[in-house]
Specification:
By secondary structure, this protein is α+β, with helices and mostly antiparallel strands. Helices cover 39% and strands 10% of the residues. The strands form 2 sheets. It has a 6-stranded antiparallel β-sheet with strand order 1-11-10-9-6-7, covered by helices on one side. The longest helix is centred in the middle third of the chain and has 19 residues.
Length: 425
């Protein structure tokens, strides 16, 4: 336990002393008590998993010298999986130097390259490609490396893979989606993507990845299992926005709406009066299937949630993120503590962050002395606030819409990778 506490405290000197006195500690899995305290740890993880996932190069070096198993598995993942998903290039290089297995797959059938790609780590993806990672590898959902690179906006790796003459329009097995579909699904559709530099940069990377796919022959009108073209998915996620650069790019190359053709009939007619797709195939508009909400939610699990106010209601009402949180007529406390009525794990949320009470036929929200405060419709409130249907509530990294008697989550729980990243801030 003391060794693990020194490791997590980033006490390099103490870690070195422990390993010099007992090298077997390099193989010791995380203690159960520690796992209960640290949400990103499991009792199958070795110290090398923990250090690699956090990007701690010095600790990784010490553990490797002490004989840590470079290919140890924890919940199906190796240290290379953890480092790749975190985008820790120096650690990835250390593990590859020690002959880490680049072909190893986790419990979802994903290689380290799949993980780095999905997380948007272009440099790490290229490094893994340099070290023999297989382009033809597919995960359990049929996603190819190109699917994952496109979803992560890894534009230089996307270009590299496309130039190797791989298939441009492979369909995954779960939803029959192409890499171009995934670019649209995983692009940042929040309001921040137009306001903040980091989000604008992410959105621009996705647009450039889409352009590369199209330039190499991707079908802009490919239809998934739910009957959706890439433009349909964009319309569902963000609403009508024909001036968006990504929409303009798809339209420029003959992109059409199928599910939402009634909203864009004039554009479809102007773009291609004979109903042909960009690759010459004929598409019927007579009997188009409805958007499969469960399928779309599945592919969007790793996407950022939140959008403009016009589409928030549509997404929450259709159950896009999760089940409504009923408020009933009592008191609901939201926070990180295990005893909270609504509990999330991000450290942007205080232990007891906010409370919603039912008073005289209305719902009132108040801040419980949280660090990041309670934000309603983008404005921080400093006193108890009477909630109105349609208002957006932001608590730390989480967003909800109030529909009059429920909270409708607009942001899923953070991924394990995102929670790990918080610990390093």
């Amino acid at each position: 336990m003391r060794f693990w506490e020194a490791l997590l405290a980033e006490d390099v000197n103490q870690v070195r002393d422990f390993l010099q006195s007992d090298a077997s500690l390099a193989q010791a899995c995380a203690p159960y008590k520690l796992c209960r305290r640290e949400p990103d740890l499991t009792d199958q993880m070795t110290p090398l998993h923990a250090a690699a996932g956090r990007g701690w190069a010095q600790q990784v070096k010490l553990l490797l010298v002490a004989g840590a198993d470079v290919d140890a598995e924890a919940d199906g993942a190796t240290p290379l999986h953890e480092a790749a998903e975190g985008g820790h290039q120096e650690v990835v290089e250390l593990l590859l130097f020690r002959q880490a297995n680049v072909y190893a797959t986790d419990s979802s059938g994903r290689t380290a390259l799949h993980r780095a790609a999905m997380a948007g780590h272009d440099d790490v993806a290229n490094l893994l490609l340099d070290n023999g990672a297989r382009l033809e590898a597919t995960d359990d959902e049929g996603n190819t490396v190109l699917h994952c690179l496109a979803a992560g906006g890894c534009e230089t790796a996307v270009k590299r893979v496309l130039e190797s003459d791989v298939e441009t329009d492979p369909c995954n097995t779960t939803h029959q989606r192409t890499p171009l579909h995934l670019v649209v699904v995983h692009a940042d559709h929040t309001t921040a993507s137009r306001l903040h530099p980091a989000q604008r940069h992410q959105r621009a990377r996705m647009e450039r990845s889409a352009r590369l796919l199209i330039e190499h022959g991707a079908d802009v009108n490919a239809v998934d299992a739910g009957g959706n073209t890439p433009l349909d998915l964009f319309n569902y996620l963000e609403g009508d926005n024909e001036n968006d650069p990504l929409v303009r790019l798809l339209r420029k190359h003959g992109g059409r709406w199928m599910r939402y053709q009634h909203r864009h009939a004039h554009a479809n007619v102007n773009a291609n009066a004979n109903g042909a797709s960009s690759n010459g195939s004929r598409m019927s508009f007579d009997e188009q299937p409805q958007v499969d909400q469960a399928v779309l939610a599945h592919d969007s699990h790793n996407s950022r949630m939140g959008t403009t106010s016009g589409s928030m209601a549509a997404r929450s009402a259709m159950g896009f993120v999760g089940d409504p949180i009923p408020l009933d007529t009592g008191s609901v406390i939201i926070g990180r503590n295990p005893d909270c009525d609504v509990r999330y794990r991000s450290r942007t949320l205080s232990r007891k962050h906010a409370q919603i009470t039912f008073e005289q036929g209305s719902y009132m929200i108040k801040d419980l002395g949280s660090h990041n405060g309670v934000i309603i419709n983008g404005r921080k409130v400093h006193a108890p606030h009477l909630l109105s249907p349609g208002e957006t509530i932001t608590l730390g990294t989480y967003e909800f819409e109030f529909d009059g008697e429920n909270l409708l989550p607009l942001r899923e729980e953070l991924s394990e990778n995102e929670l790990r990243a918080e610990l390093k801030r």
